[in-house]
């Protein structure tokens, strides 16, 4: 920022020691075994010390498992998987550990063989099978075993994502899940709707899953959809009324883990969210931020839901909206010196910061992503429109004296004074450490963007482009990466 601007009255606070927060990161618990069978057993043991009744489906028969999930909730029975031709070792041990007396197999012998059924029976367990000639017929059979409801969910039986997302919702509402295809109502489903006295239907998924023409043929229909499976899980979570005190999270493309997560979340009365296996989806981040969720259980090993996604959940910045303002731009170059234009330095650092914060789990919004210009008022308005939790303006400094150098952070006392100070105190030492620059401390100043932004706000002066020492640092990509990482760490610490 040009020196003439810096001549605004500044109150120097002096040296402020950074004291790490005593508060902890978010809580993340992982339930995951070496196989889907082991994961299901581990999940069952989280809520059932003993389970008189257990529901078993084929390990890859996801339609059967989706249909069985609401029955699992009503029977207070965990849902376990098995291999087709023989009882999986982990499942066998699970049945013994849970002291199971009754097993309900959902699905025909192509999914769970007669041999597997016999192996279960040899454990002294009574076995009952619910199956039909198709997935539609099996779902209808399961619905017939449930407590009668005048409402049913209707899901495309070949779109697993819709059914998986709906498990906790269907279970909590005690609605059966019936299947159809995208354009015609299967006879088994039609008969079930009539025989079960279904008066209301809730279609899960958009028109690509179940067409408008089919929708209009259903009794008193309504629809819950989303732009993708992640968004659908969020929309369903908003309708369940389930607790977000802690929340279940699964990879929306790992069917077995997600079905188990739906069953367990329903049992515990908790929200269940589907996300990407490598990095939390934007919809999930937004929901987490809106509900201020700080405790999570993930289902599946790291190969299912990555350690990176789990780390994002653990980071207190997850779901927080950070507005990043690269100062100056276009016709306003800002400070100049040593071959550097401040506007370019600001954008480069801000872009790296944006990537780092998003990688940490935050929601990020930038005032500009290219060489464009917004007035100071427009920048403030953009931050307000983004409903940002914090506002960070990125700048570089200048002085007529080339020996002036170092890094400093400014805040204003007009709004959120204490929180802005705390944000500045968390960021400043980490910037200095990352760059190896002189610590010019935290200061107050009435710069427009931090004076009129009503959320906690800081303005960062990363270094002096007029200083040969600082300019050399600001030209190094590795240093700027370290700077972005340091600021990100400071923001995370602020939210602890």
From TrEMBL:
Looking up SUPFAM superfamilies in the UniProt record yields:
Zn-dependent exopeptidases
Q: Which residues belong to any copy of the MurNAc-LAA domain?
A: 380-492
Query: What does the entry give for GO biological process?
Result: peptidoglycan catabolic process
Tree of life domain: Bacteria
Q: Which UniProt keywords apply?
A: Signal
Give TM segment ranges: none
Alphabetically, the GO molecular function entries are: N-acetylmuramoyl-L-alanine amidase activity
Which InterPro entries does the annotation name?
Answer: Bact_Sporulation_Assoc (IPR051922), Cell_wall-bd_2 (IPR007253), MurNAc-LAA_cat (IPR002508)
Q: Read off the Pfam families from this record.
A: Amidase_3 (PF01520), CW_binding_2 (PF04122)
**Keyword Signal attributed:** yes
Signal peptide residue numbers = 1-24
The molecule here is called N-acetylmuramoyl-L-alanine amidase
